[in-house]
Write a structure and sequence with these properties.
Blueprint lengths: L3 H10 L7 E4 L7 E2 L3 E2 L9 E2 L3 E4 L8 E10 L13 E5 L11 E4 L3 E3 L6 E5 L10 E2 L10 E3 L7 H9 L4 E5 L3 E7 L3 E2 L10 E2 L2 H11 L3 E8 L3 H11 L4 E5 L10 H7 L3 E5 L10 E4 L6 E5 L3 H19 L10 E5 L3 E3 L5 E9 L4 E5 L16 E5 L4 E3 L4 E6 L2
Parallel strand pairs: 6-7, 14-17, 14-18, 15-16, 18-21, 22-25
Antiparallel strand pairs: 1-13, 2-13, 3-12, 4-11, 5-7, 5-8, 6-10, 9-10, 19-20, 20-21, 22-28, 23-27, 24-25, 24-26, 26-28
């Protein structure tokens, strides 16, 4: 049986980024770049004022105070009309170009406009005015021809603004993967249906759709398939039209666990079946060799499905979308209380996580096993406990996988 690490390596090996697409700037948020972005401008494109006030020659205010002639006014979107000579000042607005000869800006709050023709301004600064005070020089943020964003970069709101500044209204990105989710089992009924004898509501389907969406994927709900070979074949065939197909149930060793043989009938190549972990041991993974569709057969118990998604499916979806991640993002934490670990498989135990800015603390939540979905409502992550029997003390360091 494979370890989690061995299974993850196989998922990584068989998961390549989707083909890049051209995307409009307004729709690229949350996607990863598939090209290098180079600036076509200097930023700022001219020496500019950082505030409303007066552009001055700092040598005229070596003592911090002076009366100067106001010879120009420059607003944002305008250009200076004359250079400053000794004893001159120009009224200037935030973002406006600096007149020739000026090397500083005095805040409007430190000025008093006087009469006269031309008018004069009294400037009273708390100390000597320094060169470069309250101004931004051409190109200090970025230069024309400079690389500003690299392939694989996850586009955030600020990046969208940067793309607009460098003139990119369309960019090459890795698209969101399309994920189909199919729940299987004769016992399942939709969430809005009251279960009859021997029935349970389908919690896995809505949960997995939500998890796929939270990983940035476009989702398709294939509903519930009965434990019938022909119905499973039809539904799985539909799901193989997506970039990834996530199934829940039917992958163990029971009489009605028909998923592995149906996937084989659909032409899906099995990569592995069963992993050394708790919960989630029956996990199945394969690839359709012609379509490239990734197929994950998750156990039917909801916490098993949840854990397998966080460990394996999320990683695959991120890689399809251009991420170079090769493993889930584990963090180190301190146990909030003593804990007794038992079992011949590594356990991923639901936990409440808290971070005070210095230490991440993990509190194991009350958990009744792989069917106990309620435990996840108070959890923000999973604690990893290696196989074996061991008593952990409060304060011991452990590894955790946060949900966010």
């Amino acid at each position: 049986m494979l370890t989690v690490e061995e299974a993850l390596a196989l998922v990584v090996q068989h998961t390549c980024p989707l083909a890049p697409q051209v995307c409009a700037l307004a729709r690229c948020l949350g996607l990863r770049l598939a090209e290098t972005i180079v600036s076509d401008v200097d930023s700022p494109p001219y020496d500019k004022s950082l505030m409303d006030g007066y552009a001055v020659r700092s040598a005229d205010l070596a003592t911090g105070s002076a009366e100067l002639r106001v010879v120009d006014e420059v607003t944002a979107g305008d250009v200076p009309h004359r250079a400053l000579m000794p004893g001159d000042a120009a009224r200037i607005m935030t973002g406006a170009p600096l007149p020739e000869g000026a090397d500083a800006v005095v805040m409007i709050e430190e000025s008093e406009l006087l009469g006269g023709d031309p008018p004069r301004v009294r400037l009273t600064c708390p100390g000597p005015v320094r060169p470069e005070q309250n101004i931004l020089r051409t190109g200090v943020c970025m230069r024309r021809g400079e690389e500003v964003l690299s392939p694989g970069h996850l586009l955030r709101p600020g990046d969208v603004g940067l793309l607009a500044e460098v003139g990119r209204d369309r960019v090459q990105v890795y698209p969101r993967p399309h994920v189909a989710v199919l729940s299987t089992g004769n016992e399942l009924v939709p969430a809005g249906t009251k279960p009859g004898p021997g029935q349970i509501r389908n919690s896995n389907g809505p949960m997995l759709l939500a998890m796929a969406a939270s990983a940035g994927a476009e989702t398709r709900d294939l509903g519930i398939a009965r434990d019938d070979p022909e119905e499973l074949y039809r539904r799985i065939s539909q799901g193989l039209e997506s970039d990834a197909l996530v199934l829940s149930g039917g992958v163990s060793a029971g009489k009605m666990d028909l998923i592995p043989q149906t996937l084989e009938r659909c032409g899906v190549q099995a990569i592995f079946h069963k992993v050394l972990l708790r919960p989630g041991k029956p996990l199945w993974f394969g690839v359709h060799p012609e379509r490239g569709t990734l197929v994950f057969g998750l156990p039917g118990n909801p916490v098993s499905s949840f854990v397998c998604f966080h460990l394996f499916v999320r990683l695959a979806l991120l890689r399809l979308a251009g991420s170079e991640a090769t493993a889930p993002p584990l963090r180190r934490a301190r146990l909030a209380q003593a804990f007794q670990q038992k079992g011949d498989r590594p356990t991923w135990h639901p936990a409440a996580l808290s971070d005070d800015g210095e230490t991440l603390t993990a509190q194991p939540v009350r958990w009744q096993g792989s069917a106990d979905l309620r435990a996840l409502a108070t959890a923000q992550g999973l604690i990893y406990f290696p196989a074996g029997t061991r008593a952990y003390e409060a304060g011991e360091e452990v590894q955790v996988l946060p949900f966010a």
